[in-house]
């Protein structure tokens, strides 16, 4: 790697390489050597910008959270447009076709990584926890607009949507489920909560 490359560029290059490796080969494939090789940089570049590999992984996970797909991040502002089911189906599909599914086993597999993430993220798994919060906020907004039953427990519905879709996306050998399956899950979870 040429000298004088900006810190942010090196970080993003390493994060992009880690994401490709994670999606292609899973969390066991992530090592400092494999990431730097995938990024096409010297191994020392990673250690120049991060105190150790778990520091790199924690920053990688937090970067993935900050880059959440706009269809998920913007979900609360979609309240009152389209249908509740269609909005949720689009957001959940975007979420689970991103790196989110691959981050879960990475975080679970590494004790030191989980410990480091507990400081900025005291509960749950980053990305999925944030997505559940955004979906809950969206459902709250729809409830206030009368498009969701006043008795609906929006936070439980959000958790059910995340959990059920996560199971669908992790059970197919990296093959996303058909769009109709995600739509059917959303409709089932919302049944009784969406006024007819």
From TrEMBL:
Keyword DNA-binding (UniProt): yes
Alphabetical list of InterPro entries matching this protein: Homeodomain-like_sf, HTH-type_TetR-like_transc_reg, HTH_TetR
Keyword annotations of the record: DNA-binding, Transcription, Transcription regulation
PROSITE patterns on file: HTH_TETR_2
GO molecular function: DNA-binding transcription factor activity; transcription cis-regulatory region binding
Keyword Transport: no
Database matches in Pfam families: TetR_N
Protein name: TetR family transcriptional regulator
Organism name: Dactylosporangium sucinum
């Amino acid at each position: 790697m040429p000298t004088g490359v900006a810190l942010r560029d090196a970080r993003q290059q390493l994060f992009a390489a880690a994401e490709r490796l994670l999606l292609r080969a899973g969390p066991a494939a992530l090592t400092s050597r494999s990431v730097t090789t995938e990024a096409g940089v010297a191994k020392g570049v990673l250690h120049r910008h991060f105190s150790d590999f778990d520091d790199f992984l924690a920053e990688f996970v937090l970067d993935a959270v900050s880059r959440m797909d706009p269809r998920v991040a913007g979900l609360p502002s979609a309240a009152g447009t389209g249908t509740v089911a269609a909005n949720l189906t689009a957001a959940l599909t975007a979420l689970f076709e991103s790196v989110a599914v691959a981050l879960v086993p990475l975080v679970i597999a590494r004790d030191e990584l989980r410990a480091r993430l507990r400081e900025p993220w005291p509960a749950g798994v980053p990305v999925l926890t944030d997505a559940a919060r955004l979906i809950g906020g969206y459902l709250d907004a729809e409830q206030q607009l009368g498009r969701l039953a006043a008795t609906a427990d929006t936070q439980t519905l959000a958790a059910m949507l995340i959990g059920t879709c996560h199971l669908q996306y992790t059970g197919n050998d990296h093959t996303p489920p058909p769009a109709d399956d995600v739509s059917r899950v959303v409709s089932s979870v919302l049944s009784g909560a969406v006024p007819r």
